[in-house]
Amino acid sequence: MPEELERKSAVATRRGDDGTTGLLFGGERVFKDEPRTEAYGAIDEAVAALGLVRAELGLNAQDGTLPRTLARLPDLILRIQRELFVAGAELATAPNGVDRQLPGETRVTAKMVDGLDALLAETEAAIELPHEFVVPGETRLSAALELARTIVRRAERRAVSIGRAEPIPGDQVVPYLNRLGDLLWIFARAAEHGESRAATPSKAEPRRHRGRSA
Questions:
Q1: Over the stretch 168-193, which tens digit does the pLDDT of each residue have?
Q2: CATH number of the domain that residue 190 is part of
Q3: 170 part of a folded domain
Q4: φ/ψ of residue 54, rounded to 5
Q5: How far does CA 44 lie from the centroid of its chain?
Q6: Helix (H, G, I), strand (E, B) or coil at 93
Q7: Based on the structure, what is the number of domains in the chain?
Q8: Domain encompassing residue 127
Q9: Cα 204 to chain center, whole Å?
Q10: Sign of the CA dihedral 194, 197, 198, 200?
Q11: What is the distance between the alpha carbons of residues 159 and 154, in angstroms, rounded to a whole number?
């Protein structure tokens, strides 16, 4: 057998081949489609989607098309990605390991939620918001932000499902995800504003009816 085929992967442990996965801080293995794994799996997806946002921002910065009003956004997105790792860790903790969680590292804190509230207020004050539902896709950046927002909303729903089945020791993870969904929507509007584009309304303009000819 060729040497390269004899080597074992450091990533593929094969322990998940039976459809189960491990949680943080020990505990029994759980199935990969259980509410808890669905929740932190959705958070993992949100982190990846925000990676697309950050990559788009990086391309804009390289070619000189990143608006000055969005200059802080790459750092803010990276900050949010790191905070989502905290939320994911909290949801991935085995019930018998919650006493080992650390605020701000493996458990979401009220300070983290307050930080999103501050960003919401600051960004809203700088732009004019639409007064109706909008259709994503006006710009590549705003569309990527909208995609991340919808994934965060799914993570929020899954976290709520966990809380209905068993208490979540921390009381800030759902508020954090809820606030983050709002913030990403606001960021999408700020991205459109920065590129001098207006959000596309969900309703088409009413057609003008022509009068009958005489």
A1: 767 899 999 999 999 999 999 999 99
A2: 1.20.1200.10
A3: yes
A4: -65, -35
A5: 8
A6: strand
A7: 1
A8: 18-199
A9: 29
A10: negative
A11: 9
